[in-house]
Predict the structure of Anthocyanidin 3-O-glucoside 2'''-O-xylosyltransferase-like.
Amino acid sequence: MGAFGSNGSSSMSIVMYPWLAFGHMTPFLHLSNKLAEKGHKIVFLLPKKALTQLEPLNLYPNLITFHTISIPQVKGLPPGAETNSDVPYFLTYLLRVAMNQTRPEVETIFHTIKPDLVFFDTADWIPEVAKPVGAKTVCFNIVSAAAIALSLVPAAERKVIDGNEMSGEELAKTPLGYPSSKVVLRAHEAKTLNFMWKKREGTACFFDVKVTTMRNCDAIAIRTCRETEGKFCDYISSQYNKPVYLTGPVLPGTKPNHHLLESRWVEWLAKFNPGSVVFCAFGSQPVVDKIDQFQELFLGLESTGLPFLIAIKPPTGVSTVEEALPEGFEERVQGRGIVFGGWIQQPLVLDHPSVGCFVSHCGFGPMWESLMSDCQIVLVPQHGEQILNARLMTEEMEVAVEVEREENGWFSRRSLENAVKSVMEEGSEVGEKVRKNHDKWKCVLAESGFADGYIDKFEQSLIDLVKS
Ligand SMILES: C[C@@H]1O[C@@H](OC[C@H]2O[C@@H](Oc3cc4c(O)cc(O)cc4[o+]c3-c3ccc(O)c(O)c3)[C@H](O)[C@@H](O)[C@@H]2O)[C@H](O)[C@H](O)[C@H]1O
Ligand SMILES: O=c1ccn([C@@H]2O[C@H](COP(=O)(O)OP(=O)(O)O[C@H]3OC[C@@H](O)[C@H](O)[C@H]3O)[C@@H](O)[C@H]2O)c(=O)[nH]1
């Protein structure tokens, strides 16, 4: 094995195989760009359908090669389903079953490429397949360290009695030594964690899969930084008794071939004053499943009286967002409100000067994107991990507000309207506080050398790992 690194004579050969969700594939690709910038070669495994969205984000096509994987049809999944965008949230485990069936194809690829390193997060058989070809494995986690520390460490193990669901109170208990009293779930929120211990046909439970990946890999990596989540990273490291490598925020930055925002959005956004538009986006998967809750979100934005752009996937059972709109909504908001059910260039919309507020489901990718923007941030988290991200943003960093929900999980149009107004109205105390804190954090994260420093250190850890 020769010398490694940007100044060395040879580069590392890396394979990436992320979970089949855009919230995972996107940061894996951003990290690939950072490693390619240092001269390393990457083969990126992904389903065919994801190519359209990911190809424009590949900044080093000479070094990053996309290799499409056939995702088998599994009974119960919608026909042609390949990514989380094609699957309702409650069926996501079947996509995991499908991913497991790609093992023979991945094995063949490893034998052909013989990589030095394999990055993965969900396919727990990767270490078994990588070892015979001499590759080291990195479990790269793109969710918050807080979410992993709360529920995906050995100390969080739970006994499921007779296949019964656990109570919210039981699930809300933090594992021994968990380092925060603020980034926690309330009992009614913790119920969303039940899926982790649920036994499913054809695949182990989520908790077992994740703990196995982190136990069996050669290194654990997390897309985060010490400044925001140091204590959670230390806790994970102590739980698994291995070092945790941090990549930092891993955002693409501005590159010469950075693509442009589609003209339809440029033209529409240009009609409004700087900082006046509310952009609401809920990620790549259909997450708001109940149609009345879906409509309440729209009605809440309508009530703000502000211009808004909503990018959201239709709820389960409805094929387009248009079909799910509240009655008379389109006529009432004509000229100031748009709803879009397709893929939108989220980071570029957030960068647009007319956009002043981001209403988000608080996936971890959007969380970083919002921190790097100048927008006020309003959070409507849907599931466990997103709720924890939201607590990090509201309770620890104090850069955002969270929309209030009732005990049954429902949020009203009024609570959404109030949250948006609390950050958008001039002179609002809350609005000023979160803006000040957000500015401070942005200065830290955007400071020259901050993100690059993380990547330099990360690259060195990988080189040491490969040589070990
Ligand atoms: C209904 C179930 O769906 C499937 O999983 C749901 C989503 O899981 C996301 O990943 C995580 C979620 C959570 C969480 O909700 C609460 C937590 O405290 C921690 C996590 O962690 C993760 C996670 C962590 C680390 C990692 O490397 C991961 O790959 C994930 C995921 O982002 C999203 O795409 C899923 O839709 C699941 O398949 C389950 O079996 C279903 O029942
Ligand atoms: O229309 C879209 C949707 C998404 N995106 C981009 O795609 C990326 C993925 O978005 P999300 O993080 O919301 O992705 P997902 O919906 O797959 O989230 C999933 O994985 C990451 C976790 O933190 C989330 O909680 C989980 O739901 C974002 O960085 C976003 O900028 C778009 O550019 N356009």
